[in-house]
Amino acid sequence: HYYITNNLRMEAAVEEVGNQSGVETLVSLSKPHQYQHVHQNFTVPGLFLNYVIGFIAFSVLYLFSYDVHWSYYKLDRKRVNMFVYTVRLVRIIHAVLATLVAVPIMLITSEFLKQRFLILDMFVAFSGGYLTFDVFGKYNEHLQVYEPPGKLVSYRIIRRYVRKNWLLLAHHALLVVFLYPAVLFARDDEGDFLVACILFTELSVPFTEFQWIMEQTLEPHNLRYIIVSMCAIATTVVCRLLIIPFLYEASADHMEMSVLDFTLSLAPWWHIAALSFIIPNIIWLGRNIFKTMVYLRIPYERKRKAKPGEKIDRTTLDREEKRLKED
Hints:
By secondary structure, the chain is mostly helical. The protein is built from 15 helices and no strands. The chain has helices at 2-17, 23-34, 38-41, 44-73, 82-108, 118-146, 155-164, 166-185, 192-200, 205-216, 223-241, 243-254, 259-265, 268-305, 314-326. The protein starts with a helix and ends with a helix.
């Protein structure tokens, strides 16, 4: 807030004084000081401390959320595993925080590459702690759901966990090891707007997680499920697919080039990186649309075959879903 206020005050001072001698020169000389390297404003130990705070904060939130769920809802452990729900609740909270950081930066940014926001660097380090927590949270979920009680760590358990969650682990490892250090230290204090656009993709996460929760709680056939599913599909299209063409167009406009010329001027690995982001999301979008259609068909199939007064439990719904998928 202090940083943005200073920028606004400086712009107001330029407008008020006008073109008086020396004012514009003073402002132009002062601007580079606003865009200092992140390690000069927020040191490496400070970034690491922010990373540790993020890990501790989301771990405490995870444990607290589990206690709240179990104390207030008293859900059956055989029907609903609270660790699964708690991990998704923490994901929703992280996604909301990322969106709250990204959207103001996207709206306020007046200089496409040069304008700097220290809160973005702080949140990237904080988010690294969340990604580390998520690995352990998913491991705990794997122990509670898929492994027999007793052992906490073994080679076979870790192997099954990695085999089942290899995509999530690869995603988190790439972010923590490569992307986040590049964002913090290797971009020469440029591109906060682009980083904010990347964080903006998290907007789709709350809807997809709520969609999954409703599917597990026998609510995949009402109006709420339809609304949440449509929001999940729409936010995926806008935030995870259309965001890449938008970045190409915005970058071309900043460089005062046509989109075609700008696209051809980029190195091939830029396009490979963009495709590696788009293709998995296209696959996930197709699966989500198909899954939504399957769940919406279940009530009609159930009504068509159910006997008067028959109650349909989760096992029956799973069996019908599997049959519909096979069809």
